[in-house]
Write a structure and sequence with these properties.
By secondary structure, the protein is an alpha/beta fold. The protein is 43% helix and 20% strand. It folds into two domains: 203 residues, Rossmann fold; 183 residues, 3-Layer(aba) Sandwich (Rossmann fold). It has 15 helices and 18 strands. It has an eight-stranded mixed β-sheet, sandwiched between helices. A six-stranded parallel β-sheet has the order 15-14-13-16-17-18, sandwiched between helices. Strands 3-4 form a two-stranded antiparallel ribbon. Helix 2 runs parallel beside helix 3 and helix 11 crosses helix 14.
Length: 392
């Protein structure tokens, strides 16, 4: 099959979006399909230094980057990408559209309908009713009425990453298109040869001799960092052998808000905010951490959780993370409410029981391999997409 994938961005600051989009492209290409990714040079509010309008390789995937003219309320406007989609869509068998409320996704859906090419939409958690209504709801509602209803109802399928995302979408709006439930997957090869333990700690003397509590991902309001910081302050008040690591980048205003909270709770000196990490640094911190925590208020899947489990790291997640049921059923992690006291208790429970940490880490490795690998994801997508296209 000739498959066109489009996303408004795959910049490093998009976190799980980049990992998920590139992972599925590589997986489908590995199955023998012709896969191209059309995107922009946006990376949140930054611009990537990449070749524009020509085929280039990004982690082994054929990518075409197009310039951004403007970003309005998170909507990335790239008219050269729209023009490129008009030329490319008629020459493929299937289009896979990532995200919503974007000119790029709306244009892709429009040209698919115009040229009668089937398309699949991946909302990436955007159809969470609570999160959707938090910011700029009137603008979103208007966009839904003008564009998204038709985009979704005319799709060959809507692809969800978890049972929870599917359920949330059903509460958000009625969609006529069928659902595909295909968990996201990660490439497990980098996790088979992890760096030696201690490489990351050596760069930060304040971590010496401490148990590291890690959040890895975007520094964003929905990630529940306020819950994690308060939970950590409770743990730190009872023991002096812990250190919090917030690894990732985010909006400067929100980073400042979290920094003020760390000062207010008197744990700033026991916290390290690393900023954006490259792939090698990410593996190094996952290797050195003792517990991974994602206390998110809303997460359609949780790529960073799977990456932590692939490293054998015990995980604590909120019950708003898409794969909480799978993790709970496999006893591969601890699931809590979005409450600081529950998160604090879960952290201490793991800190006090090395046997439990080891057993949980091994079960996490197993579920990452058996359920959340890119190979498993691409096999499921290939079967579903061939059925949509009528291909053998």
């Amino acid at each position: 099959m000739r498959i066109l994938v489009t996303s408004f961005s795959i910049g490093p600051r998009t976190g799980g979006l980049r990992v998920g989009v590139l992972g599925l492209c590589k997986g489908l290409a590995k199955c023998g399909h012709q896969v191209s990714l059309y995107t922009t040079n946006a990376d949140e509010n930054e611009i990537l230094n990449v070749p524009l309008g020509v085929s280039t390789l990004e982690e082994g995937v054929e990518v075409f980057f197009y310039p951004v003219q403007k970003i309005i309320f998170g909507n990335v406007l790239s008219y050269p990408l729209v023009a490129a989609l008009k030329l490319r869509v008629p020459n493929v068998d299937l289009v896979l559209i990532h995200s919503m409320y974007q000119l790029t996704s709306t244009a892709a859906a429009f040209y698919c309908r115009k040229f009668r090419v089937p398309y699949v939409v991946r909302p990436h958690g955007i159809m969470d009713p609570k999160l959707a209504r938090r910011r700029r709801w009137l603008l979103k509602w208007a966009y839904i009425q003008l564009f998204e209803k038709k985009n979704l109802n005319c799709a060959a399928a809507i692809q969800y990453s978890s049972r929870m995302e599917d359920e949330m979408a059903r509460h958000f709006m009625t969609v006529e298109s069928p659902s595909l439930l295909i968990p996201e997957g990660i490439n497990l090869e980098p996790f088979e040869k992890l760096p030696s333990r201690g490489n990351f700690r050596d760069k930060y003397p304040e971590m010496a001799g401490k148990s590291l509590i890690l959040h890895l991902g975007r520094i964003h309001q929905k990630k529940g960092l306020d819950l994690l910081v308060e939970a950590f302050s409770r743990v730190a008040a009872r023991r002096d052998d812990v250190h919090l690591v917030l690894a990732g980048s985010g909006d400067k205003g929100y980073v400042m808000q979290i920094t003020k909270m760390l000062h207010y709770l008197d744990v700033f000196d026991r916290t390290t905010i690393t900023g954006q990490l490259d792939e090698d640094e990410k593996l190094a911190i996952l290797r050195d951490a003792d517990i991974f925590v994602l206390a998110s208020y809303g997460e359609n899947f949780g790529i960073s959780v799977v990456e932590a489990m692939a490293c054998g790291l015990p995980v604590i997640i909120s019950d708003k993370v898409g794969i909480w049921r799978e993790i709970l059923e496999a006893s591969a992690g601890t699931v809590t409410k979005c409450q600081p006291e529950e998160i604090a208790d879960a952290i201490e429970n793991l800190l006090n029981d090395s046997g439990l940490r080891m057993a949980m880490g091994q079960r996490g490795k197993n579920i990452a391999r058996d359920k959340f690998s890119s190979d498993r994801m691409s096999e499921s997508m290939e079967t579903a997409y061939q059925a949509i296209c009528g291909a053998p």
